[in-house]
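Posting for a labmate who doesn't have an account.
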Amino acid sequence: MKNWFECGPFTVFDLETTGMSPTCDRIVEIGAVRIDADGSRREFKTLVNPRRPIPRSSTMIHHIDDEMVADAPTFAEIGRDFLDFAADSILVGHNVRFDLGFLQESLNREALPLWGGKTMDTIKLLQKTHPGLISYRLQYLRGIFQLDDVSELGAHRAGADVEWTVQLLAIALERLLKNRE
């Protein structure tokens, strides 16, 4: 059987933001893991200075506050670095539409090239490979699939959510590959 990562390369990413609107809110953290077709992994993690206050309601979710991002680079400073990191890969997210909306809006705002590559959503993938689950929320799936505990990274922080999404991608692709045998 082919290894799931041979279907790649994949860049699994997650963003933390100041709110829910890509046009009104800003990115405060980017986490990504690139898995190349040989199985090798590289990480891209950074806090991002949104150049505006982070609402308390958002801080309560991801635990990122104004002090933490005060000396962080702005999206204008790291946007191209992220594009270079993800280049020629499939961009994967759990509910990728949300993160991709923020990414594209941020790239556009800084006059950087938009992401033009392929994307994959682990929610849609899992709905095909594991239909009928009560929920496809990341926290629910952590329990159902007994994902590795990366809680030291903190739930709703980009690093932890990326690690869990990588595990879900592997589970779904392994099932697809097994069903094709």
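Reply:
Got it, the structure tokens are right above this. Helices lie at 56-62, 66-69, 75-86, 96-109, 122-129, 138-144, 158-180.
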